[in-house]
Design brief:
about 35% strand, alpha+beta, single chain
Length: about 200
């Protein structure tokens, strides 16, 4: 099967990293913005934009409040799907797989790399829960600032999620809607990928 140019290689994580690097040079805002789809315990789907923070050797990692709607949905049903779409490059990557929490030193390091206001905001926001006014939120930020000081630790309710894909599809726009699509599939992390070209 012919796979050259932007599709060349046998490691889909490396191809995804290369595409993201190219997008960083061409996308105006947030080239790492992704649509994340989850489902609750009853199977009702939900989708929202989040920022992808790492394409690791075996997963795609983002961070959030574990008590948020997405955090609760992933705890109840630890499977998710994600789409990275770059309009400037006319490319997208779709993936789906199993989800685990990204906690410990990696989460601590990422949290510490964020701006102080973002770190304090993570403590102050009860993400996804009702809020009566912005003034209430800002008052909570002030209280947290006074309590936690200039170097707050990572909250125990805040950290990462890693999607370990069982399927990754790379799509590139083609003339007359004759797009190029290749999908990598496997059932477990220790299996080899099965690679297949798909009809547009």
């Amino acid at each position: 099967m012919e796979r050259d140019g932007i599709f060349a290689g046998d490691d889909p994580f490396e191809i995804a990293r290369q595409w993201l690097t190219e997008a960083e040079a061409s996308e105006i805002n947030d080239p790492n913005a992704v649509a994340l789809a989850t489902a609750d315990a009853d199977g009702l789907p939900n989708v929202r934009m989040v920022l992808l923070k790492e394409i690791a050797e075996n997963g795609f990692v983002f961070y959030t409040n574990y008590g948020s709607a997405k955090g609760q949905e992933l705890d109840a049903n630890p499977q998710a799907a994600m789409v990275l779409h770059w309009k400037s490059l006319r490319r997208q990557i779709r993936l789906r797989g199993n989800v685990t929490r990204e906690e410990g030193p990696k989460a601590d390091a990422y949290y510490a790399s964020r701006s102080l206001k973002s770190r304090l905001g993570a403590w102050a926001s009860e993400q996804s829960r009702p809020l009566d006014s912005r003034a209430t939120l800002m008052a909570e930020v002030a209280k947290v600032t006074a309590r936690k000081g200039p170097n707050p630790p990572r909250p125990p309710f805040w950290g990462g999620f890693r999607i370990a894909p069982v399927e990754i599809e790379f799509w590139a726009d083609g003339a007359f809607r004759l797009h190029d699509r290749f999908v990598w599939r496997r059932e477990t992390d220790d299996e080899s990928w099965n690679i297949q070209r798909l009809n547009p």
